[in-house]
């Protein structure tokens, strides 16, 4: 008989069953109109849900794109610094990211298509619901003859078919959206937990760290030297004194505080500072020798 | 006559095209009956392509029911089987 005819019969049978349940055909009209309005609400919610999912996916795509750009920059920096090994690593990771991106892009387009279809379905249903309302009032006003029944049947199966179609479309969109949300949620979690860092931004950690080390190496050495010089000039006694005594860290601070402050300020402030720090220190000192 | 493509709306097609569409439809049906996945998708696509080629959109506020209903373009064989048993239809 053909798929089309059989599918149509199933739709008709369903509409007729609903129609038969009603005793007064006019009651059918009002009841059906109510259901139509509810379905319209549902389609609009469906459109909004799909849009939300799409935007979320958009954010994720942007994030991954940024990371890919960063990896690309790092690869260039590495190459400029003569580190082909690092550049290769960065590009390898970028390639991994890009396959993820492609996947997301496909899903994004599919969601976009779904959103468009639902939006159009919502507009079609709106037009049919409006037409049905007009027809319903006309039929009710002239309802005297049996022929009205035929007109009701026709309007009813027309709208019922549209409703079944839209209802199924919403169902499909909801299923797709749910899948997408689950995936987006998993990706968000991965990004937040840092697990994806191994693949995504982790590269930036070790590659960037190595680049930073190379770039900043001399600066760090210089700074270290300077710090060492400063320490040896300003506080030689406490460095020697702290460890041989086996004193607690707190007592080292106790000693350090007046010394550090003594240089710029003089004796006034260490006097204030001492009692504050001395309090917790004394019991600690008392215990340790035991 | 009016044909509905599920998820897309209704099209008015000339009666002269019906025989040809029925033949294409037979191919879809036999693919479903024989569970021939490889034949199914192209058969459905061919039927849809022909309907789109000969049909013109029905106005959205037209309340006439369709004489033929065809599954959505991305329907699987499983989807079609459900449609044939009204399992796939939304209740209400």
Please supply descriptive tags for the structure shown above:
heterodimer, A: 290 residues, mainly alpha, 90% helix, rod-shaped, disordered C terminus, B: 92 residues, alpha+beta, four-stranded mixed β-sheet, 46% helix, 14% strand
Q: What features would you describe in this structure?
A:
The complex is a heterodimer of chains A (290) and B (92). Mean pLDDT of chain A is 75; it is low at 198-204 and 240-290. Chain A is rod-shaped and about 110 Å long. In chain A, helix 1 packs across helix 4 (147-193), helix 2 (25-80) runs antiparallel to helix 3 and helix 2 (25-80) crosses helix 5. Chain A is an all-alpha fold and 290 residues long. Chain A contains eight helices and no strands. Chain A has helices at residues 3-21, 25-80, 84-141, 147-193, 202-234, 236-245, 249-265, 268-287. By secondary structure, chain B is of the alpha+beta class. Chain B is 46% helix and 14% strand. Chain B is built from three helices and four strands. A four-stranded mixed sheet of chain B has the order 3-2-1-4, with helices on one face. Chain B is globular, with a radius of gyration of 13 Å. The two termini of chain B are 26 Å apart.
Q: Indicate the overall shape of chain B.
A: globular
Strand order of the largest sheet of chain B: 3-2-1-4
Name the structural class of chain A. Answer: mainly alpha
How can the largest sheet of chain B be summarized? 4 strands, mixed
Would you list the SSEs of chain A in sequence order as H and E? HHHHHHHH
DSSP summary, beta strand count of chain A = 0
Structural class of chain B: alpha+beta
Q: Give the strand tally of chain B.
A: 4
Strand content of chain A: under 5%
- Rg of chain A: 38 Å
Largest sheet of chain A: none
Low-confidence stretches of chain A: 198-204, 240-290
Amino- and carboxy-terminal Cα gap of chain B: 26 Å
Averaged pLDDT of chain A, please?
Answer: 75
Number of separate helices of chain B: 3
Order of helices and strands of chain B: EEHHEEH
Query: Average pLDDT across residues of chain B?
Result: 90
Helical amount among residues of chain A, as a percent range? over 70%
- Measured by DSSP, the beta-strand proportion of chain B falls in 5-15%
Give the % helix of chain B: 40-55%
The pair of chains with the biggest contact is: A-B, 44 and 36 residues
């Amino acid at each position: 008989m053909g798929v089309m005819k059989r599918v149509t019969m199933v739709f008709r049978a369903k509409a007729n069953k609903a129609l038969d349940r009603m005793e007064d055909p006019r009651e059918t009209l009002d009841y059906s109109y109510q259901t139509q309005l509810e379905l319209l609400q549902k389609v609009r919610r469906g459109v909004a849900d799909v849009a939300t999912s799409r935007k979320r996916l958009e954010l994720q795509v942007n994030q991954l794109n940024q990371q890919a750009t960063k990896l690309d920059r790092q690869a260039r920096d590495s190459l400029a610094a003569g580190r082909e090994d690092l550049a290769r690593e960065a590009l390898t990771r970028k390639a991994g990211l890009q396959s993820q991106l492609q996947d997301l892009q496909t899903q994004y387009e599919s969601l976009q298509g779904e959103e468009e279809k639902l939006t159009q379905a919502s507009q079609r249903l709106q037009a049919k619901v409006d037409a049905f309302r007009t027809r319903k009032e006309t039929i009710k006003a002239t309802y005297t003859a049996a022929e009205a029944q035929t007109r009701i049947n026709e309007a009813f199966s027309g709208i019922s078919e549209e409703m079944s179609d839209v209802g199924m479309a919403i169902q499909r969109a909801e299923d797709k959206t749910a899948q997408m949300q689950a995936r987006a949620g998993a990706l968000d979690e991965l990004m937040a937990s840092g697990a994806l860092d191994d693949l995504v931004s982790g590269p930036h950690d070790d590659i960037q760290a190595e680049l930073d080390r190379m770039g900043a190496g001399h600066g760090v050495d210089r700074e270290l030297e300077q710090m060492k010089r400063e320490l040896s000039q300003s506080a030689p006694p406490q460095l020697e004194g702290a460890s041989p005594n086996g004193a607690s860290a707190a007592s080292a601070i106790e000693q350090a505080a007046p010394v550090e402050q003594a240089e710029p300020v003089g004796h006034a402030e260490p006097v204030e500072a001492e009692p504050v720090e001395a309090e917790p220190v004394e019991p600690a000192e008392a215990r340790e020798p035991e | 006559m009016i044909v509905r493509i599920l998820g897309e709306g209704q099209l008015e097609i000339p009666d002269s095209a019906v025989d040809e569409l029925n033949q294409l439809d037979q191919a879809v049906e036999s693919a479903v009956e024989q569970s021939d996945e490889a034949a199914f998708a192209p058969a459905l696509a061919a039927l849809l392509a022909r309907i789109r080629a000969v049909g013109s959109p029905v106005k959205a506020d037209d309340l006439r029911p369709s004489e033929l209903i065809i599954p959505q373009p991305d329907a699987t064989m499983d989807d079609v089987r459900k449609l044939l048993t009204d399992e796939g239809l939304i209740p209400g």
